[in-house]
Design goal:
Helix content is 38%, strand content 23%. The chain has 344 residues and is of the alpha/beta class.
Amino acid sequence: MSMVNLLAGDVGGTNTRLGLFEKTSSRPRSLAVRGFATLDFPDLPAMISAFLHAEGRSDAAVESACFGVAGPVLGETAELTNTPWRVDAPAAARVLKLPSSRVRLLNDLEAMAYGVPVLHDSEVHVLQPGSARSVNNATAGNIAVIAAGTGLGEAFLHRVDGRFVALASEAGHADFAARTDRDINLLRHLVARYGRAQVEHVISGPGLVNIHRVSHAGPCDAAVDLEAPEAPAAISTAALARRCPGCVETLSLFVEAYGAEAGNLALRTMSTGGVFIGGGIAPKILPALTTGAFVRAFRAKAPFETMLDAIPLKVILNADAGLLGAANFCSRDLIGTTAKEHQR
């Protein structure tokens, strides 16, 4: 059988990763992956051309392509939420010399969700084993994905006739639900600052900065510069090292809010097959996620604690899960289109 090349992309507001994959019977096999600063390029077609040239594959026979995009996908276009970039599927199809039917845009969390069923056990960290069977088993239920990074994304895999179908959302922009007195204090601050408190105003990298402003009664012992791009990482690093009580409180509130929102997502989607925590932040703060605070907040949904206790809860460790998911969707849903076209 000849090799089938799939082009996949994970298009973010700051960074974008592109990869070539080979279709296999189980999980797409990575052939080449490269990262780019998104705003170094005027558009996606220019980045695709640079990628193929850099990999020496300008003449590669790409048969289908799929791109996960950090923003809402409307038809064949998407506007990135936090970056002035527009992604256009027909334009990508033209540079790849493909029919538009073989190029698809997905929301970035939708793409990550398609990666979940093909993750290896070594690519996740189990916070709560639950009692659901394997995600590849036909009896497994729905699966949800929540991922905090520059923003907050949520999606879920709905099981339909033994097949997973991913559904995107913009739930990160829903209203933040305060549960405790300290949440209420934070809520007041967010409403005063933004006019409305969104979930991602709390559960994201910028959310850590927002919490930091409220949790410090005086100067930060770690001297975190809140205007610096690396501020979220500096806050979490100081908290994990326990160098600043205010930073410790910041991360504590963040972790509990994250767990609570993961539990909300599980209830909304009845994700008895598991809830997976993706994004760039979770693997970096794994020690804080494993203290039990995240899981307790996840379960604290009376009268449904027993149901939530049975849901597997796992952190995705594979940084390219979104890229893998886009390739998996490409392999699973677009290759069929290719085969039909060849038969015409």
